């Protein structure tokens, strides 16, 4: 399986189906689907999250299959305890134990990962400096402006310009399915809300894009892949409720000494520190 999925490419290896973004030289970006694991419903089948009620042995096996498929050593991945906040951390070591919803690093030995099941994984790469970042932006995080704060922190911490940063959005709940109540008319700009047949829908893609534009980012890739509409491919809280699995988005730099697409490098880290992951905002 090797198909175009707008900016993402849908791939398959040993039965594991995943998305790969190949537009940033020297950087690997992957996003898991729900296909290729061993978990039973409602976590079927490639649930990568420990904290949703799935059998832990199944999740461990799923992770092993996924990381083997994308040629990554999970010990190099840094997760963060996601809390729908606007906290963005600088990561210097793969053993860092973090709390927040965004991470930034300039270390080739580190891979950054966030869990989602409708929320947006936003991937960042500085085209001038070798800096990467990932942000988990749910509705609460978007209201707090976490995407913009992630860009601001990249610029401040590494003395770079926002114009050098490119951004990519992962699959997430689209305005086709994100129905909300009338109280949202008072909480959000009208430009983020769509009224259809007396129902109101929230456009998170537009909201996050605008935040990134305000921060100075020029190149923003929004593939408009709805996790709810494609719940056969991605986990979705909106479609399935609380009892469901989670997808994983990861980004890491490629070692110049290795061929592109090969293993990431790094010292032994904490492979299971991300078990808090996503929490539903529904």
UniProtKB/TrEMBL annotation:
<keyword id="KW-0378">Hydrolase</keyword>
<protein>
    <recommendedName>
        <fullName>Purine nucleoside phosphorylase</fullName>
    </recommendedName>
</protein>
<dbReference type="Pfam" id="PF02578">
    <property type="entry name" value="Cu-oxidase_4"/>
</dbReference>
<keyword id="KW-0862">Zinc</keyword>
<dbReference type="GO" id="GO:0016787">
    <property type="term" value="F:hydrolase activity"/>
</dbReference>
<dbReference type="GO" id="GO:0017061">
    <property type="term" value="F:S-methyl-5-thioadenosine phosphorylase activity"/>
</dbReference>
<dbReference type="InterPro" id="IPR011324">
    <property type="entry name" value="Cytotoxic_necrot_fac-like_cat"/>
</dbReference>
<keyword id="KW-0808">Transferase</keyword>
<dbReference type="GO" id="GO:0005507">
    <property type="term" value="F:copper ion binding"/>
</dbReference>
<keyword id="KW-0479">Metal-binding</keyword>
<feature type="region of interest" description="Disordered">
    <location>
        <begin position="262"/>
        <end position="282"/>
    </location>
</feature>
<dbReference type="InterPro" id="IPR038371">
    <property type="entry name" value="Cu_polyphenol_OxRdtase_sf"/>
</dbReference>
<comment type="similarity">
    <text>Belongs to the purine nucleoside phosphorylase YfiH/LACC1 family.</text>
</comment>
<dbReference type="InterPro" id="IPR003730">
    <property type="entry name" value="Cu_polyphenol_OxRdtase"/>
</dbReference>
